[in-house]
Structures are given as C-alpha cells and as structure tokens.
C-alpha cells in the first residue's frame, strides 16, 4: 500500500511538472529561444520637395550693360540780356510817344539798393546818334527851342522835369521830340562795408580821364556795346 501511494505521488509530481511548462493559453510545448533581429534595410531616398519648396536654381550671370543712348538736341538759345559786365548794366526806354512837362519812366532796375548806393547816369538820345547827359542846364530840341532838364530818381521811377531856360516855369514837350532814354547803372559796394561808394566810382572815372557827360566814353571805359 505504501508502495502504491509512492507511485501515485510520483506520478502526480510528474504531471505537475509537465503542466508548469504549458502556456497560459494552453499552447503546448516550451517557448523556443528568441531569434536574432534581422538587419534593418537601407533607408530609401527622400522624396522630392514640392514646387513651393523646390531647391533654388543657381543665380544667373549679370547681363551686359546696355549702350548709352544718343545725347538730346541742344535747346534753343535764350534771348540776349542787357549789355553789361560784372558791375555795369545799361537800360533803354522808348520816349517817342511821351509828352508833357513831367515825364516819369517806370524802371524796375532802380531798386532801393541801387538808388541808395549805385552810380546812375542818364542820357537822352537825339537825332538817332547823339546822347546828351541829363540833368542838363540847356537841352536843345531844335533851333531856338531849348529847355532845362532836372531829374529825380526814386524807387522804380526815373522822373524828368522840363523848364524854360533859366526859370522855374514848366515847359511841355510834344510827342516825337524825345527819342529814348539810356540809363547806365554802375554798381558800387555798400559804404557800410568800408568799400567804395558811388562817389568814389565817379571820382575814379574822372581821375582816369573819363568824361561822364560823354556816353560813348563811358561805354568804352567799361568795354560795353553802344
């Protein structure tokens, strides 16, 4: 009996050992050893970027500079200005239609600075080629037709007053008796700067032998056209 129990006990232990080698899900047989991990395949090339993210192409070469176009035509020359040099100007005014005992010429060249500082010489044209300086004690319009002429210079105005010779009585002139007025403005520097004034210029011209009553001598002195 004892031998029988021992056989049964051994049998049960064998069964128990066998059962411990079974899986939970009832698979039979022991789990085999884990196989080696296979070699990872090479990574394929990346796909091409879309158009929006495309790789910029190489920068092209700078194009050659275009040829310079031909120069434009010169513009039309402007009208000649008044005669003058660096510091002398001349202005001409038509008097052929002027009449009366008092004649006022509008002269915009007579600015306040010019009136106060510059030397202003006036000449009346007679017989188309003779310039007589004014003011004048006796101005001959013709045979036995003389006048005294006084002047007054103001801002933008050059006044001429005609009198009977030797009196203070006005004497009217008629249209056509006068031809033209020529003004010569000789610039002088302001006396406040300690430089030459119009009186100094007049004195210098006389010391150089220039007769300021002679229009042509004045023009020659400043190398100006008549």
From TrEMBL:
PANTHER family: COLLAGEN. Residues 29-46, 56-76 have a biased composition (Low complexity). Keywords: Collagen, Signal. Gene3D superfamilies: 6-Phosphogluconate Dehydrogenase, domain 3. Residues 29-85 are annotated as: Disordered. It holds the Pfam family Collagen. The keyword Signal applies. This is Collagen triple helix repeat-containing protein. The keyword Signal applies. Residues 1-18 form the signal peptide.
